[in-house]
């Protein structure tokens, strides 16, 4: 039922306002406002227009502020709605193909028979802890690998392999083994990276022992030779990284050479000791003889193009690898010394550098790594014989012999 006051006011209002009021005639808000107007005095009614205008401006300001502050949310909502509309439309396009799959799905569901065997269910329930332990094996292996517990990881891998042998046709076990193999690949990468760092001998021995237990090396016809090659190659990479750190000293050639020779002696000596300790052979004296023989073989092959069968002995592949390592690192040392010496203006300091090289060679000789024959080849030795008094290498050798005699006299 229309309000009497509203009937009185409508003829005096514009057509748009009247239409809107007619639409709101059943609204409780409009009824409340008309009741509010009835309770106003004449003076208050005259100011109601001003108050309504002020309220309208306040509402406009509030709406403007809300629109500005909510702009990111409105844009996000609009984008989400647009995305939803696109996906809904794509779903509508896919419905025909989905409806074609439903009959096949219903057929498969109708053929499915749940397991009602109480004994099988009870067995599964009683072994649920063991099943969970098996399912957690890949994540446990990966956790051990990433935290450096390689021995524990390998023990778990052995357990997984035994399960794979025992349950050959179980898909879950095959999936677990595949995930464990991925973890082993990461472990292999970490171990190889560790060998290229400044590892101590006990750590290097453990790393090689872990690598030896991994599948690629277990399946190799000669895993020891491959591990020897990897170890020496890793030591070469580490030595070069250490020597490259000296590049800022190249502006001071004498200081650079001294530090270069020190690092060479330190790291090559440690590499040879590590090689002998990780890949031991019977008889320490025989080790040194084999190392010297292998290095002599390398020198003879490099100089003459073929091995001198009368002057070299038969050595195994590991000794040949070690001799090749000593030879190539010593050749790098020789090239560096020969390249940097002309840059040193004070030629009187040459003798000290030559003497440092000789001491390095004699230090490595204790482990079968003497490289003096590389630093002074046949051409050098002929020149030494022709001009002993003017050759700095010979002078350094003579000085070293004199010092050795003095030490023996004490």
From TrEMBL:
Membrane topology: Peripheral membrane protein
Keywords: Golgi apparatus, Membrane, Protein transport, Transport
GO CC annotation terms, alphabetical: Golgi membrane; Golgi transport complex
GO BP term, pick one: intra-Golgi vesicle-mediated transport
Record-given protein name: Conserved oligomeric Golgi complex subunit 8
Superkingdom of origin organism: Eukaryota
UniProt family annotation: Belongs to the COG8 family.
InterPro entries: COG8, Cullin_repeat-like_dom_sf
Entry's localization field: Golgi apparatus membrane
Pfam families: Dor1
């Amino acid at each position: 039922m229309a309000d009497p006051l509203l009937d009185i006011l409508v003829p005096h209002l514009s057509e748009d306002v009247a239409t809107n009021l007619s639409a709101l005639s059943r609204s409780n808000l409009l009824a409340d406002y008309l009741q509010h107007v009835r309770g106003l005095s004449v003076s208050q009614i005259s100011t109601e227009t001003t108050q309504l205008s002020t309220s309208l401006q306040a509402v406009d300001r509030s709406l403007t502020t809300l629109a500005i502050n909510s702009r990111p949310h409105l844009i996000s909502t609009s984008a989400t709605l647009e995305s939803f509309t696109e996906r809904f439309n794509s779903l509508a396009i896919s419905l025909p193909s989905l409806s074609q799959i439903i009959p096949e799905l219903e057929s498969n569901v109708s053929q499915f028979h749940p397991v009602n065997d109480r004994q099988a269910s009870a067995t599964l329930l009683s072994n649920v802890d063991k099943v969970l332990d098996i399912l957690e094996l890949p994540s446990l292996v990966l956790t051990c690998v990433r935290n450096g517990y390689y021995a524990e990881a390998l023990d778990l891998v052995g357990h997984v392999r035994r399960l794979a042998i025992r349950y050959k046709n179980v898909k879950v076990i095959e999936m677990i083994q595949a995930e464990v193999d991925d973890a082993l690949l990461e472990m292999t990468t970490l171990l190889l990276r560790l060998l290229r760092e400044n590892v101590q001998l006990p750590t290097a021995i453990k790393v090689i022992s872990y690598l030896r237990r991994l599948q690629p090396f277990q399946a190799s016809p000669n895993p020891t030779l491959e591990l020897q090659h990897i170890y020496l190659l890793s030591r070469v990479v580490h030595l070069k990284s250490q020597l490259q750190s000296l590049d800022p000293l190249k502006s001071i050639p004498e200081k650079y050479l001294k530090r270069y020779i020190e690092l060479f002696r330190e790291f090559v000596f440690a590499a040879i000791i590590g090689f002998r300790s990780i890949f031991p052979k019977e008889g320490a004296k025989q080790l040194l003889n084999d190392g010297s023989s292998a290095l002599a073989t390398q020198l003879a092959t490099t100089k003459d193009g073929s091995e001198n069968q009368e002057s070299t002995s038969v050595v195994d592949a590991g000794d040949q690898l070690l001799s090749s390592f000593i030879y190539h690192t010593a050749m790098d040392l020789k090239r560096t010394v020969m390249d940097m010496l002309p840059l040193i203006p004070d030629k009187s300091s040459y003798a000290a550098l030559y003497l440092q090289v000789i001491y390095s060679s004699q230090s490595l000789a204790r482990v079968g790594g003497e490289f003096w024959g590389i630093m002074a080849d046949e051409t050098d030795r002929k020149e030494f014989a022709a001009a002993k008094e003017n050759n700095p290498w010979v002078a350094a050798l003579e000085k070293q012999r004199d010092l050795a005699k003095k030490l023996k006299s004490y």
